[in-house]
Amino acid sequence: GLPWIPHPLRENRGEVEAALKGELPVLLALEDIRGDLQVHSTYSDGKNTLEELWRAAKALGYEYLAVTDHSPAVRVAGGPSPEAALKRIEAIRRFNETHGPPYLLAGAEVDIHKDGGLDYPDWVLRELDIVLVSIHSHFKLSKAEQTKRLLKALESPFVHVLAHPTARLLGRRPPIEADWEAVFAKARAQGVAVEIDGYYDRMDLPDDLARLAYGMGLWVSLSTDAHQTDHLRYMELAVGTAQRAWIGKERVLNTLPYEKLMAWLKARRGV
Prior knowledge:
The chain is α/β, with parallel strands linked by helices. It is 33% helix and 14% strand. The chain has nine helices and seven strands. The protein starts with 14 loop residues before the first helix and ends with a helix.
């Protein structure tokens, strides 16, 4: 007598009880996604130019693609200096003027330093359309130290998204330890979204933490963390993780049309 339960929910996490009460969620679907919010280009460690990324996004029917090259701290990624970052932002803006939809967002994936400071100064951050912050170092700090680090990073008024929050690499590196309820509460208070990174060796946030964050009322950002155009297909993995986390299309940044997404990003800064 139960209603049909979508396959991603079949984890014995309350789906039977929800079905009996008629409270199963309407899950996010791949066709709800209007763009990708973390992609890298040749300005850091990506393999493709702005033109090539634009063509790939157009082929997928996307409305937008966030070009979020690394900041300089990840040395192997070759991210631009603050001065070069401003030139990159200008290049993306000029590109949009000549190409039209899908629009490229001038973004950055900014490193969180050990002390919670950010790897770009405010005069760069304020010029970006979208600012992702993430951890790429000091993975073995204590739970208390890692939590303090994340909480400080989230205090910046320029941050939009906490990217691949646990920093795990499947089969290679365990997740960092942090008080995730405290981190998510801070993100919610600051109006910062959390990411589900669909790159196959990250899948981060994992479904249990994504469900916790979404249940706490946070916005969620889906990405592929693509470093070449072929990686854009990993959006299917990000959506699958979101489905296992009981996430619907509400409060998912990627489901917003371009104008509403830009309004959300500007509202984060009180613009």
